[in-house]
Amino acid sequence: xxxxxxxxxxxxxxxxxxxxxxxxxxxxxxxxxxxxxxxxxxxxxxxxxxxxxxxxxxxxxxxxxxxxxxxxxxxxxxxxxxxxxxxxxxxxxxxxxxxxxxxxxxxxxxxxxxxxxxxxxxxxxxxxxxxxxxxxxxxxxxxxxxxxxxxxxxxxxxxxxxxxxxxxxxxxxxxxxxxxxxxxxxxxxxxxxxxxxxxxxxxxxxxxxxxxxxxxxxxxxxxxxxxxxxxxxxxxxxxxxxxxxxxxxxxxxxxxxxxxxxxxxxxxxxxxxxxxxxxxxxxxxxxxxxxxxxxxxxxxxxxxxxxxxxxxxxxxxxxxxxxxxxxxxxxxxxxxxxxxxxxxxxxxxxxxxxxxxxxxx
Length: 361
Hints:
alpha+beta, 7-stranded mixed β-sheet, elongated
């Protein structure tokens, strides 16, 4: 009996509660059509978001043609300031926008725009934070070429930008221009991969031998990089990052223990290159690999990594050769001290990544 009375009291209270006002659809829609000589846009925004920006209540007044006539330019100026389209590295600003068009069946408002493009862009970058007042707001992004839907994505507060590569020769060139420098940059600023490589070079040798070592490393990491980027094999970073640190320790220890036996550094580079490839893949995932140009982006990134590695080989090998040609004993001392430093840093990164989760990628 007590439970029934409690339920009746709750229903009585709720009957006097004011209706809650909630954001019904926190989405916008942006279609980008890449046509010969132009880029066309279709932007659809929900009336709730527009009403919030204009201070209109109730929100459905936004769909009144008279309101759109008086307020349409203001809201369009607001949205254009929060939307940027870049084609081939050039920000498009000379676009022609239509008047606001109410869509009562979708509770939304639509605009259309056309930006002239004098040449094939190669890539189109969209940056949009249309309604920053709402942290959950998302913009559904669709790309069309030749009238066919070719790519879809979602932009939100944490990912407000997307670069789309056009499916022609100019698009391939744009992929190469982006991912080759990215590969060079990553190997040159990635301390763990760089230290592993330097550790392999400390014992010196002919340029041909050192290039073989680097090429073995590239061949191995290219395999696992591709497998991980294609989501075929994706081991967790909590295992890969400590393993990369241990590979650095191993190289330093091997340098100290090696005698006058056979030089197996190329095999070491090949074996541990598989592990480093998974580390490279973590970086690529953050770059939003273009699905339509996945092969070219993987190839270009690997080419960039190889170029960066060859730069390291040239610099390190030149220094070691110059030092040994003047003083062989000094060269051996440098290799010994350098190997100790490699061991210490590798051990530090291993402890850091296992116990403190502060991994370096």
